[in-house]
Design goal:
Distance between the termini: 58 Å
Order of helices and strands: HHHH
Structural class: mainly alpha
Helix content: over 70%
Number of helices: 4
């Protein structure tokens, strides 16, 4: 195992997950539950399973599709999501200012 890759992935995922909706949902459920260990185990298991699927699918897809194409599709997807968020935000601001 490469310790450099391990820490690089750990740091990337840790920072990306801070404050995302999954963490906020876990926080809300934990606050309303009397079983914080069950909430921790459930949310941890879900993240591990999602990561496993990503690794397995990523390894399989990379055998058939060039890395550059995968990166282009991912970048395009993030760009479209970002543009959609900006447009939705501007539409909501327009509605708020007319009310």
């Amino acid at each position: 195992m490469s310790i450099t890759i391990f820490f690089s992935i750990f740091l990337t995922i840790f920072i990306a997950e801070l404050g995302d909706k999954t963490q906020i949902a876990t926080l809300a459920i934990s606050g309303s539950s009397e079983r914080p260990l069950a909430v921790f185990l459930g949310s941890s298991s879900a993240l591990v399973l999602a990561s496993l699927l990503g690794v397995l699918l990523g390894g399989s897809i990379a055998k058939f599709i060039p890395e550059l194409l995968i990166e282009l599709v991912a970048a395009t997807g993030f760009l479209l999501i970002g543009l959609n968020l900006i447009m939705t935000s501007q539409e909501n601001e327009g509605r708020d200012s007319t009310e």
